[in-house]
Amino acid sequence: MAQLTVDIGGSPGKDCRGFCKYCYFKHVKGTVSLGCRYCLPFSKGCDYCTRGVKEEYEGFRDLRAVAEDVLANLQMLGDIDRITISGGGDPSCYPDFRDLIEILGSMEIPLHIGYTSGKGFDDPGIAEFLVENGLREVSYTIFSADPELRRTWMHDPTPEASLEVLERLCGAIDVYAAAVVIPGVNDGEDLVRTCQWLEERGAKGLILMRFANEPQQGLILGNAPLVEGQPVQSVESFRDLVTRLNESFSLKISGTPLWDPEIGSPFALLHEPDLLKKLPKVTGRASVITGSVAAPSLQRILQIRGYEGRVVRTEKEIACLITIDDLMALKPETLEETVIIPGRCFVHDPEAEEVLSQDGVRRQVIRGPEMLTADAETSMGMTRTGVLAMEMEGFADLIRIINQYGR
Q1: pTM, to two decimals
Q2: CA nearest neighbour of 235 among 348, 153, 313
Q3: pLDDT tens digit string along 13-33?
Q4: What domains lie within the chain, and their CATH numbers?
Q5: Whole-angstrom Cα distance, residue 376 to residue 382?
Q6: Is 358:333 a contact under the CB 8 Å cutoff?
Q7: CA distance linking residue 316 with residue 367, whole number of Å
Q8: Cβ–Cβ contacts within 10 Å for residue 284, how many?
Q9: pLDDT tens for each residue of 48-74
């Protein structure tokens, strides 16, 4: 069975009733090619790392075009067990949203909305309409159960209606709420009240996202700071917050970049010595570059399997958001002749080799696996067994790459 993704297009800030104050895409200006795994060797920049990373599309797609794509994909995919609606814009703001739901609902396949802020829902009755037409799961940004905070920080013109839609959906389908945690705004007692609100209404889970305001926290589009002067919680403090809240409520609460308390991810393998023994032994020498959050765990797992090298941490916290600027800050003379970079990082491979060879030693740059573990947004709907299987596959691939290309 396969999943069908229905792309409705749209752009952040334009097709969602305006930017939320904390939106990752706020203040983005110009077009810069970052480089990525999809770029051709002789050309830095492709559609993905130039436009796609910004979710920069020409408005919402016409309903007819969306429907034609759905029919074409159905013929190619065959049996479908799930339909997911996604796009650069917010589905709740899609002009033909009801018509789209009726078309998809007629297929009698479970529907999933990959993300919505609910800012486009002005009529609470839309909740029953969605359920009647097959909606079975939704990821819904709540930010706060306080409508005034939603109005101020999300620029939601009808926060009471948006929250009532969320409430009705909680009682009928699987709802995973989400909230960017901003110190002094929706944390503390307000966050506790939001958790209570969701628990009482039957939400399945809540994903907490640590607010980012600086480049090292992941703002790679030249748009930092998002909120001038706004403090940011440390990774360690944020992880402790997630742990406390998850212990206090029955709904599952996890966080990104850290962590999923129930599963123990990212890097749940560290708590499974028997599984670690099943990974291949490391026999090659290579420097492995990663983000500052993952570096300690990555070093420990590889050392357990015989790795004698050094996992090199960048100032960038998240590995897949590493750019060429992060590599420029490293000291090439401390690196092995083979360097492995994160599979999804935004770097053009030839440029990386040039930057990391500036000490006169020609270094070979190899991309590692696309994923080594699951963050909260991925693990929220997974079992611990599924996460461990993902990590076993990812680390086995990484070790094979080290052994194949290492000196």
Answers
A1: 0.92
A2: 313
A3: 999 999 999 999 999 877 789
A4: 2-256 (3.20.20.70), 268-405 (3.40.50)
A5: 10
A6: no
A7: 17
A8: 18
A9: 999 888 877 778 999 999 999 998 888
